[in-house]
């Protein structure tokens, strides 16, 4: 999709601070980081959001998790832990309509998540 900012990042048309990539996924640092590590892992294929995932996306979605683990290893988060987040829809604050997994770490995360 040419009007999708994350498709344009995958295509190399818009610059991004890449962390790691795979055949199915691309991981890059969030423009507006909410933690010392804030990386977005996206499928190369355009999928709108987590609520649109179907069985046909199984490999792409599994690869997001595998790639998120690679991000955690690269940023040294494995021991202390990290948070993985999919936002879906307006109430969750989903702003970019291309599936993305937030990888957040490097600080203590609030729990419950609505506490910050
Ligand atoms: P969400 O609220 O779940 O839709 O998160 C979208 C995130 O994407 C938000 O944290 C900011 C980030 N973002 C939006 N546009 C860009 C961009 O062009 N480059 C990068 N690196 N991040 C972006």
Concise description?
The chain is of the alpha+beta class. It has helices spanning about 5-10, 60-75; strands spanning about 20, 25-30, 35-45, 80-85, 100-105.
Description:
Helices cover 20% and strands 22% of the residues. It contains two helices and five strands. The mean pLDDT is 95. The protein is globular. The chain has one domain: HIT-like (HIT family, subunit A, 2-Layer Sandwich), CATH 3.30.428.10. It is an alpha+beta fold and 116 residues long. A hairpin with a 7-residue loop joins β2 (25-29) and β3. Bound molecules: 2'-deoxyguanosine-5'-monophosphate (DGP). The site of 2'-deoxyguanosine-5'-monophosphate has 12 residues, from loops.
Instruction: Output the radius of gyration.
Output: 14 Å
Tertiary shape = globular
Overall pLDDT metric: 95
Q: How many domains in all? A: 1
CATH topology: HIT family, subunit A
Strand fraction band? 15-25%
Provide the low-confidence segments as ranges.
Answer: none
Residues in helices, as a percent range: 10-25%
Name of the level-1 CATH class: Alpha Beta
CATH superfamily (homologous) name: HIT-like
Strand order within the widest beta sheet: 1-2-3-5-4
* H/E topology pattern: HEEEHEE
The first-to-last residue Cα distance is 33 Å
CATH architecture: 2-Layer Sandwich
Largest sheet: 5 strands, antiparallel
Small-molecule binders:
2'-deoxyguanosine-5'-monophosphate
Total number of helices: 2
